[in-house]
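Contributing new complexes? Match this layout with heme C.
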Amino acid sequence: MKNSQLAHSFVASLVLLAASLGGCSDLKDALPEASTASLSVHPDGWIIPASANFHGKSIRENNWDMRDCQPCHGKLFDGGISKTSCRTCHTKPGGPENCTTCHGGVNNAPPPDLSNRTDRAVKSVGAHQTHVSGTSFAAAVSCAECHSVPATVYDPGHVDSGSPAEVVFNAGLSTMRTGVVPGGPRVTPQPSYDPASAKCSNTYCHGAFVNGNGDFAPVWNDPSGTQMACGTCHGDVTKTSAAERALPKTRAQGGTHPNFTACYICHAEVVDANVKIINPSKHINGKLNVAGEERSF
Ligand code: HEC
Ligand code: HEC
Ligand code: HEC
Ligand code: HEC
Ligand code: HEC
Ligand code: HEC
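Output block (do not edit by hand):
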């Protein structure tokens, strides 16, 4: 048994003690009072992140369950009978139950991941920020496009399930119905994520739409940036100019898109004459902006 597990079972037995003494008026006296007291409830190193006894580690090894702490530290983690509030250190709304306590920082998504890593070549960090914060060329994607988002920490399927995190493409852009084959029936692409290869397949956003590159499967943790180039999701990356690269499948390629590369003439709200995306909120938004109109596929 690891030190921190020992620490946790120690705390757990104290919880039982606290519970069995419940209602007893001198419960408070049964507990060590302050951290200056000679006997501390918690082991040495409990508040030192580098220690094997660190409380964060102990919680992690108890499947991220903090409910054991509440009998003493209060339902709202604001002190309770221990008179020691978690919120003096965990100052964000909700205290330790804030969504960024265990993952995320700028927003709820990694980085940092659950192991405090920030490298986007790591699967658990991956392209999160490119998606959730938006880019100069596409609108932000919400967590719910790729996950079943918990409303509270202990919602089923959140901390109670094993690694890796579940990637679930819920209704939205990722499952949009389009005619993947020109002139064919409207179909719902079956988007999927393979945790082994970290590839996403059949997503509307990355090409599963009429005249797009339906077989493009981007790698989630490829940090090179090349998967954002014109021609990956629609068009042909091997062509020379940006316009030629971005041009969706034309008749010569078995598609139906007009064979014109002056994109801005017909898609003026989205690209300029230099083939630069001028309105990220209208690119990869599930709507086709053509000839001054916004239409569904
Ligand atoms: C003295 C300050 C302090 C107090 C009090 C405190 N914490 Fe922490 N806690 C920290 C620090 C520092 C970290 C590490 C933050 C980091 O790694 O970025 C942390 C991390 C955590 C983590 C994240 C573990 C992880 O690996 O991501 C949880 C969960 C947590 N604390 C819960 C609690 C709970 C519950 C309480 C009250 C019962 C509490 N903390 C009280 C300072 C404190
Ligand atoms: C049986 C009651 C009890 C339980 C259960 C308990 N604590 Fe405590 N905790 C205390 C008391 C009392 C203090 C203040 C005295 C001390 O430091 O030992 C304290 C102090 C702390 C401190 C130190 C604060 C500081 O500034 O020094 C942290 C952090 C902490 N607890 C976190 C936790 C976490 C996390 C859990 C759940 C995994 C937990 N506690 C469960 C009673 C408890
Ligand atoms: C006590 C730590 C902790 C807190 C606080 C926390 N999470 Fe998580 N979260 C986790 C863990 C652990 C996983 C990974 C679970 C897995 O591997 O399946 C996770 C995964 C996720 C995922 C990926 C999908 C999944 O469930 O695997 C989302 C989305 C998420 N959390 C959102 C939130 C939101 C929103 C909040 C605030 C309401 C929150 N988290 C608070 C620990 C936490
Ligand atoms: C475009 C799809 C996508 C979006 C949007 C997205 N995620 Fe994820 N998320 C993933 C993938 C892929 C993984 C990696 C699964 C794996 O480890 O193989 C992941 C993993 C995670 C993990 C696990 C981290 C760990 O350390 O294991 C958390 C937590 C998480 N996501 C939270 C969020 C939150 C919160 C948001 C919204 C702010 C969000 N995600 C938005 C695709 C997405
Ligand atoms: C990540 C995949 C992806 C990449 C990379 C990409 N596009 Fe797109 N593009 C789409 C999708 C999906 C659509 C379908 C319409 C929509 O949802 O906005 C689209 C539509 C368009 C349109 C039609 C106007 C509209 O409705 O949005 C133009 C023009 C366009 N893209 C230009 C470009 C250019 C130029 C580049 C390179 C800078 C590029 N695209 C790179 C996914 C991509
Ligand atoms: C002459 C007008 C015209 C020009 C120029 C044009 N498009 Fe289109 N585009 C359309 C029309 C019309 C549609 C939708 C109808 C269709 O494809 O059947 C469309 C649709 C699209 C789509 C969605 C897929 C599809 O075929 O429905 C993308 C992506 C796109 N255009 C990108 C571009 C890019 C990139 C350029 C420049 C390289 C460009 N278009 C130039 C008229 C044009």
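Reviewers usually confirm one structural detail per submission. For this one: The chain is about 15% helix and 5% strand.
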